[in-house]
Amino acid sequence: MSKFFFLVAVVLQWGGSHAQQPYINNKQLACEDQSDNITQGYYCNGLNKSCLSYITFRSTTTYNSAADIGYLLKADATLIVSLNNFSSEFATIPRDKLVIVPVNCSWADYYYQHNASHTISESDTYFIISNDTYQGLTTCQAMMAQNPYNYRNLSVGSDVLVPLRCACPTSRQSAAGFKYLISYMVTWGDNFSAIATKFGADEKSVLEANELNANNTIFPFTTFLVPLTAEPKIIESMQTS
């Protein structure tokens, strides 16, 4: 499909800047299937070509400080410290704690994204990088589309672009008072009500932001957009050492 016809299709399907964003619905697991554009990222249908946005990341044994997470996600560690009320950039974060990360979200071709980079190691594949290292904040389809290496021929020691999924508010969301979107990483046991409550959001607006209804299913390790009227608050008190 040519770029012109793809753009026309996007405008017709999503109604320009008024439409919300479709939920990825586990389609990121089929790495070699690039037939569904939603695996590439969230559509550029907002009022602005760039904006302050937020993503979430759960601390691991490898990435367990604001400095480590900032390095991985190419985000400002000092802002991570301030937003999450950590004591310092290098304070240890307990494993599996949800960390809110502010990022600059920008229009790249047809999709919003925040760019990180990753150096290929011996065991890496696009699937491992996107779903394990980056916890589903990107997809193997998006990585394959934006890097020169094919799925079976990653070059150890080379750097690859990692387009992280983010989005800017649409005109409809802005008119409703929403200033930011946060790409929340769904985990086991999550439901619409719990996610909305976690961020002090309205469940109806959360469903609309992802073009879902209350009967739909959401899956772990997929991004889920939550519209916010103000900067996200601390999810829970996190004591660091």
TrEMBL record:
Signal sequence region: 1-19
Cross-referenced PROSITE patterns: LYSM (PS51782)
Keywords from the UniProt entry: Signal
Pfam families: LysM1_NFP_LYK, LysM2_CERK1_LYK3_4_5, LysM3_LYK4_5
The protein's name in its UniProt record: LysM domain-containing protein
Domain LysM: 182-226
UniProt-listed PANTHER family: LYSM-DOMAIN RECEPTOR-LIKE KINASE-RELATED (PTHR45927), PROTEIN LYK5 (PTHR45927:SF6)
